[in-house]
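Batch manifest, entry 17 of 40.
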Amino acid sequence: MTRYALIVAGGSGQRMGAQQPKQFLLLAGKPMLIHTIEAFSKAGKSINIFLVLPENQIQHWESLCREYDFRIPHSIVTGGESRGNSVKNGLDSINAKDGWVAVHDGVRPLVDKNLINRAFAEAEMKGNAIPCVKVNDSLRLISGSANVPLDREKVRAVQTPQCFRLDLLRQAYQRPDFDAYTDDAQLYEAQGFDLAFIDGNNENIKITTPADLLVAESILKSRFINNE
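Output type: structure tokens
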């Protein structure tokens, strides 16, 4: 069955202190979102890429594509008022009943082709694949005035791309409360499906703060030196 990538990008850039949405900020000389799409293109030419953007950002993105001579084929989808609505719009735009879909944060530009292909392969065997990584920091659960330590060996940080059978994820998005879940894995699980976890990649960070941008620059420089 066909593979699809649904890249969701709707950030505002407030926490970055930027004047433009963070997915358009320059990373190693080109907009962050270009790196993200390039990663999926490198993972396989057969992956159909859909980019979900707020309506008021589409024209700017098209201008950036011309400025940077960016020609990787991708379909642009108008996003919704929330991430959940944006994913649903993306799913509705895929003109197929069957396939495998990877939902990915547009501001995770360091995802590599190995993780993308492992996620698709695991999903094709088990119906879904959710990448996650171990947590290195000590953790505490704080509730009001009370707090307790958490065993970090029992905790994982969840990443994207999260891959699913297309028809089953669409089914999950028929729930009336679909927008109450913070990621697709939670929604999928709430529908009664079991989750299949795979090892993520510690370099696959989500760019949220200026410090994240510096780390990403360093990682890309290292990859360039190592010809990755």
